[in-house]
Amino acid sequence: MLRFLSLARSLLDGTVPILPKYGLPSTPDHHQQHTFRASPTRRCVLTLADSASNILAMPRPRHAAQTESTMRKLAFLLLSVLFALPAAAQSADDILAKYFAARGGLDKIKAVQSERVTGTISFGPGAEGPFVVERARTLKMHMEFNLNGQVIIRTYDGKSAGWTYNPFTSNPSVQALTEADLRNIFEEADFDGPFVDYKSKGNQIELAGKEDVEEKPAYKLKLTNRDGDVSYFFFDASTHLLLKWQGNRKVGAKEVPWVSFFRDFREVNGLKYPFLIESEELGAEGTQKITAEKIELNVPIDEARFGKPNPPTPPAPPAEPPAAGSPKPN
After folding, report:
1. How confident is the model at residue 213 (pLDDT cuts 50, 70, 90)?
2. Domains of the chain
3. What is the pLDDT of residues 119-138, one digit of tens each?
4. What Å distances lie between residue 183 and 55, 70, 147, 161, 162, CA to CA?
5. Angle made by CA atoms 290, 291, 293, in degrees to the nearest 5
6. What are the C-alpha distances in Å from 91 to residues 75, 94, 205, 231, 271?
7. What pLDDT score does 43 carry?
């Protein structure tokens, strides 16, 4: 499903267009990019997890030019879906071992060669749309998110090139990923997520205590990635499955705390995945949801899906009603 989460950890400063439901224009003019700005009572966060289990946390979009950031967030959220962590051990490595076993086994996780996650992202009433995330070894990805009839696309070929298409800019076109995007692409496209072979990826993981999560005893792991970003994962002490993710996301120049909850675990080809991820900004009202409708493993994916995308055909404008008094067709 997303960072998706996780989509996610990139995923938190993206943007969506202003929706007609809120009395604002849904497409930008040539001079100004309109974005959906949530009021203090409507702000919420979208989350998935590592790989198709990396959908972690996406803040409510704020700048149309950054809508593709939402896709990155969707990526991380998706990684969380595939690779939620375990709980109940005396060391971080013990907890990880129990997590891999609870999910179905490390060998099965590493045996997955491709994945496709389809579902729905909801930012709130009247602001939701379908998504699809496809990944294949090694580091290949294709993400699409449809909002208000417009499709956002982000791809990476697994080697050195990636592209994005954002219809909510003033001049929509397929653009190559920037050098900064490519430096961060590993987190988005990492098929196994940050916990499998975490040391070789430059991640540090340590046991940070034990807390209750929704009245369930849980072990808390602290993850510091190679860039120094810190987040926390909470694992059910009984089932060893991931219950919660918590961390800060940068929105502009500001660090904003987010939290995500992983629910509705189901088995797919012998591996367990959360089919629902609910996210929110701490201290704010409103919840964003990523709901996986279908997770497919080891499916054939056309290599062209990971290359430069073709811009989707824009939706046809609504037909104008006939003028008053005009003759009706026979």
Report:
1. very high
2. 20-84+113-194+258-306 (2.50.20)
3. 999 988 878 899 999 999 98
4. 19, 17, 27, 11, 11
5. 145
6. 28, 5, 10, 17, 24
7. 38
